[in-house]
Amino acid sequence: MVSLAQRAPVRRAPRPSSVQLKYVMAVSGAVMFAYLVLHMIGNLKIFFGQESLDLYAEWLRVVGEPALPEQTVLWIVRIALLAAVLSHIAAATVLARRAARARPVKYAAGNKVAGSYATRTMRWGGVIIALFVIYHILDLTTGTLNPNGQYGEVYANVVADFAPQRWYVTLFYVLAVVAVTLHLRHGLWSALQSFGRTSERNRRAVRAVSSGIAIVLGVGFLAVPLSVTFGLVS
Length: 234
Ligand code: HEM
Description:
Layout: H1 18-43, H2 50-62, H3 72-101, H4 114-141, H5 154-161, H6 167-195, H7 200-229
Helix pairs in contact: 1-3, 1-6, 1-7, 4-6, 6-7
Protoporphyrin IX containing FE (HEM) is lined by residues 36, 39, 43, 57, 60, 78, 129, 133, 136-137, 140-141, 154, 158, 173, 177, 180, 221, 224-225.
């Protein structure tokens, strides 16, 4: 029998520091941000007509051919995006637990600091966005929840999705995009705070730039569902 004293010491994996976790959040956030910018620009092709949007969607599937088989690049992007989403959530969860442990006494009612408000908003915003993305993929990628739901008919799928009588779908998308905009605004701001050289003097500028970028992205995304619901695209 091996006595307790003879047992090899259990080696724990080194714990990542909070700064390392913030890097994980910033890098994964940057990957998702880049995707969102390209996705928003791609969506705007709907204003150039059905052929423009459907050809673009087709190009996304065949890009890299003939050197690479169809959809290779698309799947690389999907896997990178999934890795970014998972590491972003994992790092956020660990950081939130550490913050809670460092503050064993809860704030008294009415004594909540702005930081804790932003943190809760980010957490709930993140959950709403994650649920939206699941619905969105079932709606416009697989077509399962879409009234048209035809593979390759992206324009027709989008127009059927946000038809005036389906205003509640548009409303859901609007709420989700508002959540994305707020999440991004705070995410950009805190990444720039953590890694930039934010002096008191340029704090306001950093806040304004973060808000400006987030609002441009939000407006770009909202343009599509709202234009279909209000009959500008049909
Ligand atoms: C609000 C306006 C939006 C519209 C009209 C829209 C439209 C679309 C369409 C048509 C597709 C399918 C593309 C294809 O199959 O070729 C798609 C896929 C996708 N969208 Fe959006 N989208 C919007 C907002 C968003 C937002 C805010 C996010 C993220 C928070 C997002 C994330 C995604 C993801 C992850 C996919 C799956 C990509 C893939 O795996 O192929 N979208 N979107």
